[in-house]
Write a structure and sequence with these properties.
With about 900 residues, the chain is α+β, with helices and mostly antiparallel strands. Among the domains are: about 5-130, no CATH class; about 140-305 and about 345-435 and about 470-485, Distorted Sandwich (Beta-galactosidase, Chain A, domain 5). Helices cover about 25% and strands about 25% of the residues. The chain is built from 19 helices and 36 strands. The chain is globular and about 100 Å long.
Length: about 900
């Protein structure tokens, strides 16, 4: 079958209707529309058409198969069954699939997801509106049998295994098999590569599919979810979940691969982790081609048996054809001095591009196993795409964030034979083995007293047994193209660009804001000198932290996506080796700040930075199985090393924006998994080191914090309720808010609170007392309450919350008058200026509004008004590499950013 371009798909005129997402029995959070709204839904208001554009701008030449995005709608705009249509700006209909992913409490649609497919985008802007959906000329189909699941995109047919070692049985283009036997491969060794052991034993594992499930089945998009474990003999470990995305009219397969490390870090050193396909080789070796994408538009292009540069010339037309990846003329037309000696020309069947660090890759090749590799070329940062095949077709295979997630590799073996092996190595076997052991021996910290004393010097909260990586995860995105021929150099660079940065359609900040989602924020506004100054400062701190990622080389398999916590201005480095000052791990809501910055600006760089953090913090910094499942780990030298395992880090609030903006199913799974995180209080007591006596946890009387703990759990319940998932989520959300508000001093109440696991209710002694900490609201509680109180009419809760917001930065006299005691010397007062602003807005209090801006400008524990928001260049020999240095920390930047954003939204009219 010839290539079906997306341009052709867009021109089709077949009629059709919107297709809803199939409910997944394995993922109950992926649900259909509510069957019984809280109240009868009025006639939908309708909505003006909205404009969409590509995130990076322009008109991308290729998609990674297709693209899926989310759009919010104001409350009451649409009923759940509403259809949507998409057109280009000029009015041409675009085939699209739509389904709801979020609902308002009245049952109207809050968020919809949309997908378009095809291989070639045909415009830089689109219009989305209510109306009949357009179907592709040839809709995608899914067929399930006992032997497998087959998806036909109209260009390729892909059959998935439902059990056994082959996740993908075959990829066909028409009647021709382009690739087959798609499987997961992993290997381990029993000793570290760095310890120079005399004997090191290795063994290999293959992914074993336990189940495969159709999550979505067209007409534009299909999603196949496969899960299982890596197995050899009786041992099964490294659980995986792999999703395959296919789009109508496309020859691409997008893959989202997630695995969990569940080994013993003292003896399970992973030394290889990859995805492999077998690719049938057709034609003579001189008509078989290998391609690697280098940096930018660079392409490494060779044939398995080269016929250029020889002592004898086969003919200019022959050489040109081979170089361009086309079929060479019949050998009878060549110079016979070449054709008579073809058997003397070595055939290089094995190729490898190895990106073992973020600053350099090398390409090697060899004739076959048992012979030496020779170095072919090298460069700095490869785009992460390879191809093996012939003019009769082949497989392009790649990995997103290829150099950022090093050590990685793209490998082709056996291309000189009947079948090549194409492998994407997410952890290259050429690198040293993955070493996830803790970085020190405990330093004698065998009691709580010693551990708390050590916390005073390194800020590391260490405890034996809590430094384990058992249960952390990593997600990697890959793309495969079943091509009908060896791609031209230009097409190959277009595929590489789509693989590295999958094009995404987005709505404007103005539309996102008009829908009323995500609480208090507004699009960028530079309408006055005062606002311009604040906007410039917000941009400055964001740009600084974004650029630090590259300047400080914050890359690597386990690290990419995170930023550092605090700076060491003597060494001119971030405190990467000093306890709790190293990796940030979402401390003080860095994730929220980055996502709000994107919402306001619509900036592509802001989105990609926040996206990388979401992929990291939701996987690496959180436990997905074992004793700590549902908990995250506090900031530290290693992402899993600190002994503070808390729900404030696994916080669903840090992932939900990405989910609703992209409808990403993997992040949807992570959000759903957190609705039971309150059960972790049965096994791990966050306050164990500071209690006078150990507690015996009981399901009806758990020790759960009313702010950082409850706020994080409540954000998971809010998200589950929005997604129409488990009804207990709404029950616990509302019960928690109302019972906390019923305490004598609401969220400021002191004493030992007890939490009931079954219904989410709090209780305590009835005597009023006060206990307020500076961290109470800086892990998403302010953002949660802002949204919750807009969604649900809870007058008592709102009154108590307004009291809390008004009093945190209030005078001791005001605090004593309202609660019977003052609240002590509170820290992070600049952060809480947004709480003051919230009270000002909802109490219509000009005095409080002025106070909020004064608190922000004073900059207590943050950035005061006279802060230098610039940076200076530091070069060698003071530093290893030239860097920019500024008086910023990620904690202060995140909280300053959130405070400014929310103060502008709430009391911006009082700024001048």
């Amino acid at each position: 079958m010839g290539q079906l371009s997306r341009r052709s798909v867009l021109a089709s005129a077949a009629a059709g209707g919107a297709t809803a997402l199939l409910a997944s029995s394995a993922s109950p959070s992926h649900a259909a529309a509510p069957s019984s709204p809280q109240q009868p839904l009025a006639d939908p208001k309708g909505h003006d058409p909205i404009g969409l554009k590509w995130l990076e701008g322009g008109n991308p030449a290729e998609l990674a198969g297709g693209t899926t995005w989310g759009v919010p709608w104001a409350k009451g705009s649409f009923a759940p069954g509403q259809e949507f249509s998409l057109t280009t700006e000029s009015g041409d209909a675009v085939p699209m699939q739509s389904w709801p992913i979020g609902w308002w409490p009245d049952g109207s649609v809050k968020w919809t997801a949309h997908s378009v497919g095809g291989s070639t985008p045909s415009g830089d802007r689109y219009v989305l509106k209510a109306g009949s959906a357009q179907n592709p000329a040839k809709p995608l189909t899914v067929r399930t049998t006992r032997g497998g699941i087959t998806v036909d995109t109209g260009v390729v047919q892909v059959t998935f295994g439902r059990e056994g070692e082959h996740l993908v049985k075959s990829i066909k283009r028409g009647s021709k098999v382009v690739a087959e036997a798609g499987c997961l491969v992993a290997s381990r060794q029993d000793k570290s590569s760095t310890d120079r052991a005399a004997v090191v034993k290795s063994e290999s594992f293959t992914g074993d599919v336990q189940s495969a499930h159709v999550e979505q089945d067209g007409p534009v998009r299909a999603v196949i979810k496969v899960w299982g474990k890596h197995r050899k003999g009786r041992r099964a470990w490294l659980p995986f979940v792999v999703r395959f995305y296919l789009y109508a009219g496309s020859d691409a397969i997008r893959v989202v691969h997630s695995f969990i490390y569940d080994g013993n870090p003292e003896m399970d050193f992973v030394n290889g982790l990859g995805v492999r396909f077998a690719v049938p080789m057709r034609g003579a070796p001189h008509d078989r081609h290998v391609r690697f994408a280098g940096e930018g538009k660079g392409v490494f292009a060779e044939a398995v048996r080269g016929i250029t540069g020889l002592r004898r010339n086969p003919g200019d037309a022959v050489k040109k054809a081979q170089y361009e990846g086309k079929a060479t003329p019949e050998t009878s037309t060549w110079d016979s001095r070449v054709t008579d000696r073809l058997h003397w020309i070595p055939a290089f069947g094995d190729y490898s591009l190895r990106q073992l660090n973020a600053h350099g890759f090398e390409i090697h090749k060899r004739t076959k196993k048992g012979h030496a590799w020779i170095r072919s070329d090298g460069g700095r940062r490869a785009e992460g795409l390879a191809y093996v095949g012939s003019p009769a077709g082949g497989l392009a295979f790649g990995m997103r964030n290829f150099w950022q997630l090093h050590p990685t590799e793209l490998e082709v073996t056996g291309a000189a034979g009947d079948e090549a092996q194409a492998t994407v190595w997410m952890w290259s076997p050429r690198a040293g083995a993955m070493d996830v052991r803790f970085f020190h021996d405990g330093l004698g910290q065998d009691t709580y007293e010693k551990q708390l004393d050590a916390l005073e010097i390194t800020y590391e909260d260490y405890e034996p047994g809590y430094d384990t990586p058992h249960g952390v995860a990593r997600t990697t995105e890959l793309t495969f193209w079943a091509l009908e021929a060896t791609p031209t150099a230009e097409r190959f660079t277009e595929l590489a660009a789509a693989n590295a940065t999958p094009p995404l359609l987005v709505a404007s900040p103005e539309h996102l804001h008009s829908a009323g989602v995500f609480g208090s924020w507004t699009p960028v506004d530079r309408s006055s000198d005062a606002k311009k100054q604040l906007e410039d400062r917000l941009e400055a701190i964001h740009r600084y932290h974004r650029e630090q990622v590259d300047q400080r080389s914050w890359y690597g398999f386990w690290d990419y996506g995170d930023v550092m916590h605090s700076y060491d201005d003597v060494r001119h480095v971030w405190r990467y080796d000093v306890g709790g000052y190293a990796w940030d791990n979402s401390e003080l809501s860095t994730d929220l700040w980055l996502w709000y910055h994107y919402l306001r600006t619509g900036d592509a760089k802001a989105f990609r930075l926040a996206e990388a953090m979401t992929r990291h913090t939701g996987e690496v910094d959180v436990y997905h199985l074992g004793r700590y499942k549902g908990l995250g780990t506090r900031h530290g030298v290693q992402h899993w090393g600190d002994s503070a395992k808390q729900v404030r880090i696994s916080n669903a609030g840090y992932r939900r924006m990405y989910y609703f903006l992209t409808a990403d199913e993997r992040v949807g799974d992570l959000l759903h998994d957190l609705i039971d995180s309150d059960r972790t209080f049965l096994t791990v007591d966050p306050g164990r080191k500071v209690r006078e006596e150990p507690i015996d946890p009981h399901p009806k009387a758990l020790s759960v914090g009313k702010t950082t703990d409850w706020g994080a759990m409540a954000l998971a319940w809010l998200t589950e309720w929005e997604r129409n998932g488990d009804p207990i989520a709404k029950k616990k959300l509302i019960n928690g808010a109302t019972t906390l508000a019923a305490l004598p001093n609401g969220w400021a109440q002191g004493g030992e609170l007890t939490y009931n696991l079954s219904d989410g209710k709090f209780s305590s002694a009835t005597e009023p007392s006060v206990s307020v900490g500076s961290l109470n609201c800086v892990f998403g509680l302010i953002e949660l309450m802002t949204e919750l109180l807009d969604l649900v009419d809870l007058p008592e809760a709102k009154d108590q919350w307004l009291m809390y917001c008004r009093l945190y930065n209030g005078t001791k006299e005001e605090q004593r008058e309202a609660t019977g005691d003052d609240w002590g010397s509170q820290n992070l007062r600049q952060s809480y200026s947004r709480a003051t602003a919230y009270a000002a807005k909802h109490m219509d209090d000009d005095r409080l509004a002025a106070r909020a801006w004064a608190e922000l400008r004073t900059g207590h524990a943050g950035y005061p008004d006279d802060q230098d928001f610039g940076s200076k260049r530091v070069e060698g020999p003071s530093v290893l590499n030239p860097v920019d240095e500024a008086d910023f920390s990620s904690n202060a930047s995140a909280q300053y950013g959130l405070a400014v954003i929310q103060c502008l939204a709430l009391v911006g009219d009082h700024l001048d």
